[in-house]
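Hi F.,

I've been meaning to write this up properly since the lab meeting, where we talked about keeping a consistent format for the predictions we share between groups. The idea is simple: the sequence comes first, exactly as it goes in, then the C-alpha cells exactly as they come out, then a line or two of notes. No screenshots and no reformatting. I'm using this chain as the first example so we have something concrete to point to.
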Amino acid sequence: MPSASPFSQHLHTNHVPSGIELNHLRCLVDERQKLVDALDREIKALTKRRDEHAKFVKEHSALLSPIRRVPNDILSLIFLACLPHNSPARRLTKLSGYHPALVVSHVCHRWRELSFNTPLLWNVIDIHIPRPLDPREYRIDDAMAQWEGQMQAIYEMTQLWISRSASCPLTVSFSGGLSFTHYANFADKTISTSREKMSCIVDAICDVSNRWKSVYLSVEMGDHDLAITRFFRIPSDDVPILDNLLVNIFFTSPNGWAQSSLQQSVLGMTMGGGLIKAPSLRRLAVGRLWVSPLLLPVNWSQITEISLGPRAYPPDPSFPLSLLALCLNLTRCSLTFEAPSPITTLGPIMNPAAISLGNAHPQGVAANWSPLLLPRLRTLEIWGAEPPVWFAKCLDLPSLRELFLICPVLQDQGGAIELVRKFGEGLTHVTLDPWCLTESRMLHVLGQLPNVVSLRLVDDTFWHQRRWQDPPVMLDSVLEKLTPRYRHDDENGDVGGGGGSSNGVYGACLCPALEKFGCRFSSNVGFTEEAFVRFIASRRKGPRGSLSSRPNVSQLSSVVVAFPSRKPDKTVREALEEMDVNLEDMVLITTYKAQVRAQVMSRMMAQDELDFGICNHDDYLSTVGPFKPTLGGWVL
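Output, unedited:
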C-alpha cells in the first residue's frame, strides 16, 4: 500500500501551498511518476506476453474445431444442403453475390478449394434480366450505364457457373428480356450495345445446351429481343438429356403492341424448335398457350408430368380430353380451364394412337366419350374456371391421390364436385380455395374425403375472380365439423377431460384420417384462433388425454397457418399449452400479418429480391401453385 502523504489533510480543499511546500510537492510527484512509468512498462510487457499466449491459444484452438474433422465428402453435402433448390420448397436462387455457393467459397482456403471441386454447387444457373432504370427519374446515360454494369456482372457469373459446374447436367432458368419503356428515346447505339450484352449471355448458355437437364424460359419478346430467339432455334440433337421444360412467352413492344410478324416467327420456332422435340423430354410446362399444344411436335406418349396455363387462341372444348388421351403415362397434370361455353353434343373417343392433328377436334364434347383410363396419374390440379361435369365423368383415375381445386365451384352438380365425388375416397392430399366454395359446398367436399391425410386451404386471389355476392366461408363452422367430440367431454366443452365410460367419437367428424393441416389467406375470412385451438386440441389430446384410445381419428402431426390478422395477446401455441396439450412431436407454425410483412421486408433489404412465399419456414404451404418441374420438385 502507498505510504500516507504529508499533504493528506489539504487534499480536496482550497489550501494554498507555501514556497517550501511547493518544492516538497514537486519531489513527491516526481517520485510517484517514476513508479507509474515503471508500472506502465511492466503492464506493456505483460500485455505483450498475454497477447502472445492468447494468439497461441487461438491458433491452436482452431485446430480443435470439430468442422476440421468433417470429411470433405460430408462437407460437400452440407454445402449442397445450403442451396435453396435442395430445400423442400425447391426455390431457385438467382446469380448474385449472396448465392450460397459464393458465400461458402469465401470462408477459408479449404472451403474455397472444396467448393470449386463440387460441381453440383454450380449446376443451377438462374438468370433474371434486369429492367433499365426509369429514364423519367434518371438520366438515360446513367440508367444505361448501371444496366450495362448489371448485365456484365450476369455474364461473368454465368461464365463462372458454367466453368465450375464441370460436366454436370445443368438446370437453366432464364427470365426477362429487353423491354425498353415506350416513353424513353434510346439511341441506336444504346440498343445495339444492349443486344450485344444479351447475345453474350444467351450464347454462353446455349453453347452448353448438350448439358441441359432442366430449362425454364419465361421471356419477354419485343422488337429488340432477337438474341433470345436462339433458345428456340436449338436442334433437338443438341439437347439430348433435356428432361424438364417450362416455356412462358410474353410479347412486348416499346410502342405497347406486339408485331404479328415477330409473333409468327417465334411461334413457328417454338412449334418446330428442338426443345419440345427433345428425345428425353418427360415434364413439360407451358405458362401461356399461344397455340394449341396438340399442334406441337411433342412425343406425348413419353410425357409423365404436364402443366398448361391459360390459352390465347380460339377455344376447343374437346382439348383437355384429346390431350389426356395422348398422354397415357401421366403421373401429374395441371390444367387451366376457361369460362365454359355452351356445349351440346360430343363425338366418341378415338383410339389414342389414332388421334392426330386433324381429328383432334371432334364436333362435340363429352356425352359419348368412353372412359379415359390414366392408370399412373397421381396428381391432378385444376385452375381458372370450374371444369365441365363431362370432363370429370370421362376420367378413370385409379391411382389419383392428390387433388388441387383452385377454381370457383359454381354448381352443386358441377365438374369440381363431380371430381371429388368420384375420386374422393382414394384421395390423400387435397388443396382447396375456400373462397371458391360456399360453406355448404365446402362441407360437402370435406364429407367426401374419408382418407385424406393432408388438407390445405389456400386463398389464391391470382387465379380466380372474387364472387363478392356470395357470403364468405365461415371456417369456424368448418373447423367445428373437423373437430371430433368424445362422449366424456365435460359441460364446458373441454377436450380430453376425465369422466365418462366410453371413449368413442360421437357426432359427425369429417376427414378422420387427417394428419397435416394448413391454411393461408390473404384477406379476412371467418376464422378465429379459438376455433383453431379447439380443433388442434381435440385432434391431439383425445379422450382422457390418450392418443392410443382413439382408433377412429388420426393424430395431427403438422399444422401450418398464416392468419390475415395481427398477432393476438395469446398465441395458438400458448393457448394449447395452457390446455396441457402435448405438442412435443408436432410441427406447429403460425404466422400473422405483421410477421409476414417483416419477413418480406428483411429479405428485400438483404437480397434485393422479393420472395412471394408466405415465409421462409412455411415450405408446406409455399409449394401451392401451378407447378413447374425442377429437380423432381414443384414450386410456385
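Notes:
Residues 19-62 form the longest helix (44 residues).
Residues 529 and 572 are 7 Å apart (CA to CA).

If this format works for you, I'll send the rest the same way.

G.
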